[in-house]
């Protein structure tokens, strides 16, 4: 005998399915909106810019990186490296590479910024990757003190405590960061070119990176050789100055005591 009280309405399953679809769709829309809000404006590229970048890529890069940027024996795949990597490598003149060696070096830039933007847009269209940072992310208005602490913890072992650069193994080196554009410093952190590790947003948040850039720009604008900053002479020269001053004082006192005893 069937229990009429436990019988379910034929519309109950339909209502449950509709509610599930509504919740799923709403969650997807909210997640998509959140991603779009944090996506840098520079990540937006037109189809014409991507096509122009593809032409430049085929003419200047495909011989090493492959016609579809899939890589070859002469160059790595660029799929997934993102626009930031292209902007850094091409914007600093490291690419196109001209000679083999322990590492690529910065040289005169061979493309206009418009062409670099097109190349970056094309490579970014192949697969998701780090985008070119916005001006807001690069403004040197962060916390220089905190940036100095972060730089000494994460970067100073290669780049020196004030970003002066340093030697690495096998003929490689960490370049000086003096005069380097804030954009390229940020892009180097998120892409890890050559010997440098990648500092994604889980390692260093965008705020951390902004503080580091603020510190480096402060050091660049306020150079100091250390010590007590006597005309920026440095601690060795300042120590020598103090030693000569004390020695002169001792000689003066000796002469005065000798004259007094006579």
In terms of per-residue confidence, which ranges show pLDDT below 50 for 5 or more consecutive residues?
A: 33-38
Number of helical stretches of at least 4 residues: 11
Largest β-sheet summary? 2 strands, antiparallel
Radius of gyration: 30 Å
The end-to-end span amounts to 135 Å
Q: What is the tally of beta strands?
A: 2
Helix content: 40-55%
Order of helices and strands: HHHHHHHHEEHHH
Query: Any idea what the shape is?
Result: elongated
> What's the overall average pLDDT, rounded?
86
Strand order, biggest sheet? Answer: 1-2
Derived from helix and strand composition plus strand pairing, the structural class reads mainly alpha
Fold and architecture overview:
The protein has about 260 residues and is mainly alpha-helical. Helix content is about 55%, strand content about 0%. The protein has helices at about 10-40, 45-60, 60-65, 80-90, 115-125, 135-140, 145-155, 155-160, 180-190, 205-220, 235-260; strands spanning about 165, 175. It has a two-stranded antiparallel sheet. Strand 1 and strand 2 form a beta hairpin. Helix 2 (about 45-60) packs across helix 5 (about 115-125) and helix 4 (about 80-90) crosses helix 9. It is elongated.
